[in-house]
């Protein structure tokens, strides 16, 4: 393989704006026909109008052959479809019921599918990432000047700001088969959560989340690895994507709300839904983004790495700062999505 000039993502928005890298393996949970956006099989997302009580919701479930409601936001439920009923059939039935505002499949988001294998100066696959030109002046973000200003302000590396990284988790501790990254000290980690496994241990089973969190805030000046843009910020790991880099509406919406409630000032979403989906397809996510805005929390989203002429959700939302990729020469990277939506 010939050595190409390295590419990187344009990092912006004060402390954490990182577009996603990484290849997602197909998920066994994704069930969709050809040309249809992938969703969680056997599940639907329903939103009820204000005033719809428990008895009315139960009647709706009986009439639509759905069960096992799980609340993930106010007036929003994940429902299981009974045997013999299809997801699309349940959605049609739900949309006919009084008091139902919306019913959609439980659509899936994925980490963006681009991870260049160029060796770079190190001569190893992926070694290009060791050359962080994107932090330098010129076509980069000129991090040294920002670092100097933050030091002068008494906030070295963005100290005092909590960044929630909603992703595949983080290598934050030695626990069982998991090993801690040496670039994250306990003093710079805030309690997170694993919404995939529903436990308080957001261990990274993919690597993408640790890569993203490291780009945002790994330690600097310690003689190890590379440098984080916001090396003084506190990282809150929130696992919403599984080991294949796939996550669904309810886990992501829960994760956003958790991050906001627990003190994050910035929420980073380095993943994307299928480009064909609209905001109406993922109302639970949009509601969670509105909640973040109402609490003055900045949400950063990856524009997507599929060379598309439209930005994918959640970055397409006006409630999110969308971040794309550039080359070393200041041009838009050919794999980066672009456009307003």
Structural account:
It is a single chain. This protein is of the alpha/beta class and 341 residues long. It folds into two domains: 7-24 and 111-327, Peptidase S8/S53 domain (Rossmann fold, 3-Layer(aba) Sandwich), CATH 3.40.50; 39-108, 2-Layer Sandwich (Alpha-Beta Plaits). The protein is 19% helix and 21% strand. It contains six helices and 14 strands. It has helices at 54-64, 87-95, 143-152, 208-217, 249-261, 283-294, and strands at 7-9, 39-48, 66-73, 76-81, 100-110, 162-167, 193-194, 234-239, 246-248, 266-269, 272-273, 298-302, 321-323, 325-327. The strands form three sheets. Strands 2, 3, 4, 5, 9 and 11 form a six-stranded antiparallel beta sheet that branches. A six-stranded parallel beta sheet has the order 7-8-6-10-12-13, with helices on both faces. The chain has a two-stranded antiparallel ribbon with strand order 1-14. Strand 3 and strand 4 form a beta hairpin. It is elongated. The two termini are 35 Å apart.
Concise synopsis of the structure shown:
This protein is of the alpha/beta class.
Q: Which features would summarize this protein structure in a list?
A:
341 residues; 14 strands; alpha/beta; Alpha-Beta Plaits; 6 helices; six-stranded antiparallel β-sheet; 2 domains; Rossmann fold; disordered N terminus; six-stranded parallel β-sheet
Q: What is this structure's SSE topology?
A:
Elements: E1 7-9, E2 39-48, H1 54-64, E3 66-73, E4 76-81, H2 87-95, E5 100-110, H3 143-152, E6 162-167, E7 193-194, H4 208-217, E8 234-239, E9 246-248, H5 249-261, E10 266-269, E11 272-273, H6 283-294, E12 298-302, E13 321-323, E14 325-327
Parallel strand pairs: 6-8, 6-10, 7-8, 10-12, 12-13
Antiparallel strand pairs: 1-14, 2-4, 2-5, 3-4, 5-9, 5-11
Helix pairs in contact: 1-2, 5-6
